[in-house]
Amino acid sequence: MRTSFVSEYRKIVTTRTWWVLLVCMALYMAFLGAGVAWSVAAAPGAEDSGLAGGPAAVAASVYGVAAAFGYVFPVIVGALSVTTEYRHRTIAPTFLADPDRFRVLVAKLLAMVPVGVLFGVVGTAATAAAGAGVLAAAGSPTLLDDSATWLLLGRSVLALTVWALLGVALGAALTHQVVAIVVVLVYTQFLEPVLRLGLGAAGGVGESIAKLLPGAAGEAITGGSIFSSAGLSGLLPWWGGLLVLATYVVVLGTVGAVTALRRDVP
Amino acid sequence: MEPTEHPPSDGTVTVRSLTKHFGTVRAVHDLSLDVLPGRVTGFLGPNGSGKTTTLRMILGLTTPTSGTATIGGVPYATLRQPLRTVGAALEATSFHPGRTGLDHLRTYAPLAGATDQRCRDLGDLVGLSAAGNRRVGGYSLGMRQRLALATTLLGDPRVLLLDEPANGLDPEGIRWLRGFLRHLASEGRTVLVSSHMLSEIQQSVDDVVIIARGQLVHASPMAGLDALSAPRIHLTSPDTDALAALVKLQGWDVETTDDGRTVVVRGTTTSQVGSAAHAAGLEVHGLTDRSENLEDLFLRMIAPPGDPVLDHREPGSTPTGVDA
């Protein structure tokens, strides 16, 4: 297992994909963090705006940006760790080196943990730095002296790490690289927001289902975001979100292990 | 290279009644063969004959429809550290183009028990030392073949299965590969090399296995293949009547060409034909051995049954343009 882990970890860090995506994420998160912070700080009567709820809601809106909008980066890094092997046909030597395909998947998941943490830390830090900078410049409290804010940032790192694992599991289920990336983009950028708004608006059972969507679960881990602060959808408690997101990892990973990974290697 | 202790199991690759059907296509059908240690075995067949599918089944990448394939008596999937027993290169394209050659070796090294130093040594061994830190995307086909070969050697395996390893190598590279494979076999390893060209491997293999349309056509030591090539002696004389009489007297199996002035005698040797002509006092203008060369024999073996073109090909002519 240890050797499989080292092998998978080296696969990730010996290509440029990871840091290119990491840089993109940092820039995008800094931009969004600053943007949200500016809108919060500059809104007339900010305390009484749609972001009502006081400092907690402001913190969730600004510092929850990475987990709410940035998770697509760790998901893609995770998915690529499987799909590039199929795309470049390195999956054959991979399964030759370790014929236990389930163990290969577990090794890929484990190897993604440090990478997911890195994406979580960098994405969250970029958000926080830019967001706090703008808040401070606008004369608003940055809330960084509040331990609750730091807890939120920590959970943002956790959420993004789990997202990276979800990417690996998704890649195992959808081994075709283009299909996997299209599914990730369509789902995260279009389907999930629409579903959450629609189901949330439907109320009752619809809202309960909306809470179980992966994006909502990821936000629940951080404890909120601009979506929930704006009252667009309710969220599970943070541990509930973690449980739901982890369930997606297990379900998708299992689907991959019993279908795609079992097939004859192309 | 660090010496690695081989597992006690012997390195014979055993295939029994191996069959793979893709839908209605019979890629491999009831194939049985043994690949022995200490020898280089050529695995020959035209494109699409099932060589790669067979190798993939031996390696557990493709599930057989029926039949078994084992290495040292056990299926590949149950080998504990497979890279330390079997080194396999399936195609020269199994690389991430953005990874350097050395890093490619390093990604598989942990599972082969190889150190970074061994990765560098292997890069040197296959002649990639200068290119090791360049990305594989910039490699030529020949360099990729060398990298693939280095990858197979990571775990110092006692069995090497190489699919078309000479593909893309320049003549100097092919000569190097021949010597290298011979050296590996001389250390007691099992070496299987697939190819679609007999000429590419005939100088370097001990045993030859020929398949066509997914079925075994021939398996023997290389010398056994030589013995199968059909002898054809051309005898030319201006005296067509005397020539015909001699043929009749000797009971030779012949075909006559050139208005009866040349006969092609099958199944005998120049010395026998020469002696007979001399004894009969025949004026001989030509006596030549135009026996079937190995390439022709190979093409005849792999030709679809009843293919008239190949059955009546003139010996010695080149196989160019024949799409077998």
TrEMBL record, chain A:
Keyword Transmembrane: yes
Organism of provenance: Sanguibacter suaedae
Name listed for the protein in its UniProt record: ABC transporter permease
Key words, A-Z: Membrane, Transmembrane, Transmembrane helix
Regions crossing the membrane: 20-41, 61-84, 105-138, 158-187, 236-261
Entry keyword annotation includes Membrane: yes
UniProtKB/TrEMBL annotation, chain B:
Keyword field contains Nucleotide-binding: yes
Protein name: ATP-binding cassette domain-containing protein
PANTHER family: ABC TRANSPORTER, ATP-BINDING PROTEIN
Family, as annotated: Belongs to the ABC transporter superfamily.
SMART domains from the UniProt entry: AAA
Pfam family name, one: ABC_tran
Segments for region (Disordered): 305-324
